Amino acid sequence: TTGSASLGVAGAAEHPAVTAQGAALSVRHLVKQYDNASAPVLNDISFDVPAGQVFVILGPSGSGKSTLLRTIAGLEPIQGGEITMGGELLRQAQSAGKLRSASASDSTKVGMVFQSYDLFPNKTVLGNIMLAPVLVQKRDKASVQAEALRLLERVGLADRKDAWPHELSGGQRQRVAICRALIEHPQVMLFDEVTAALDPEMVREVLDVILELANSGQTMLIVTHEMAFARAVADHVVLLANGSIVEESDHPQEFFDHPHTERAQQFLATFT
Ligand code: ADP
Ligand code: MG
C-alpha cells in the first residue's frame, strides 16, 4: 500500500478529498473521556487508514490504545469528533454522551479480536463462527457453513470444527476468534494485543494468520507489543502516549531504526 496515511489535524471540511483518495477509515478530532474521569483518555486524535493498509498502533500501557479501538468498534461512546468509514458517518459525539451508531449495517463494517479469548463456551468452533452471520446477518445457513469451513482451513483448524472452546489451546481459540470476525466480511479488522495472553509457543501461529490476512489486502488496525511483528506487518505506524499521537510514519523501518521524538526513542528502547 502507498500514499500519505495521515492528514494530521485536518478539518472536517476535508472529508470529500479524503474519501476520494480511498480512505477506508477516517478518524477526525476524536475525543474520549470516561465518566468520572478528570481528563480525556483520547485527546483530538485524527488519522486516515487507506483501504488495504495495515495500521499499527504502539504505545505504553494506559496510553489509550484499547480505548481507541473500542471507540472505532462502537463499544464506547465518544465525546468529540467523528469516525467515518468509506465516506459514511460511523460514529459521532453526542452531547448526552450516549452511544450513537449512524448505520444500521454497522456490525459488518468493523470486526474486532481482543486479547482475551471471548468464544462462547457453549458453542462448538463451527457454532461460534456461524452464530452472527446466521442470526444477525440472516444469511443462508449452508453457505455460511461452507464459508466457515473455508476460513477454518485457512487458519489451519479445519480438523477442530466440532471442538468446544475449552478443548482448544489459546492460540487455536484466537484463530477461531479471527474466523468469527472475518465471516462477517468487515471492511476493517481491529486486533487488540491478540497474542498478549498467549504462551510464547502459540504467538507465532496467530501472528502468521494476521500476516497472511494483511497480505490478502484486508484493511486493519493492529495494537501489539510484538515489535518484530509490527515492523514486518506495518504500512503505517503511530505511537500513542497519554492519549495523543506523538510520532507516526509511513516508513515503519525508519521509525523503528531512527525514531525522531525522544518519546519514541524511550518507548522503543524498552523493547531492546
Ligand atoms: P491501553 O490499551 O493503551 O493500555 P486503555 O485504553 O486501556 O490503554 O486505557 C487508557 C486509560 O483509560 C487508562 O488510564 C485507563 O485506566 C483508562 N480506562 C480504560 N478503560 C476505562 C473505563 N472503562 N473506565 C474508566 N477509565 C478507563
Ligand atoms: Mg490495551
UniProtKB/TrEMBL annotation:
<protein>
    <submittedName>
        <fullName>Glutamine transport ATP-binding protein glnQ</fullName>
        <ecNumber>3.6.3.31</ecNumber>
    </submittedName>
</protein>
<keyword id="KW-0378">Hydrolase</keyword>
<dbReference type="InterPro" id="IPR017871">
    <property type="entry name" value="ABC_transporter-like_CS"/>
</dbReference>
<keyword id="KW-0067">ATP-binding</keyword>
<keyword id="KW-0813">Transport</keyword>
<dbReference type="InterPro" id="IPR027417">
    <property type="entry name" value="P-loop_NTPase"/>
</dbReference>
<keyword id="KW-0547">Nucleotide-binding</keyword>
<dbReference type="GO" id="GO:0015424">
    <property type="term" value="F:ABC-type amino acid transporter activity"/>
</dbReference>
<dbReference type="GO" id="GO:0005524">
    <property type="term" value="F:ATP binding"/>
</dbReference>
<dbReference type="Pfam" id="PF00005">
    <property type="entry name" value="ABC_tran"/>
</dbReference>
<dbReference type="GO" id="GO:0016887">
    <property type="term" value="F:ATP hydrolysis activity"/>
</dbReference>
<dbReference type="InterPro" id="IPR003593">
    <property type="entry name" value="AAA+_ATPase"/>
</dbReference>
<dbReference type="InterPro" id="IPR003439">
    <property type="entry name" value="ABC_transporter-like_ATP-bd"/>
</dbReference>
<dbReference type="InterPro" id="IPR050086">
    <property type="entry name" value="MetN_ABC_transporter-like"/>
</dbReference>
<feature type="domain" description="ABC transporter">
    <location>
        <begin position="25"/>
        <end position="267"/>
    </location>
</feature>
<dbReference type="InterPro" id="IPR030679">
    <property type="entry name" value="ABC_ATPase_HisP-typ"/>
</dbReference>
<comment type="similarity">
    <text>Belongs to the ABC transporter superfamily.</text>
</comment>
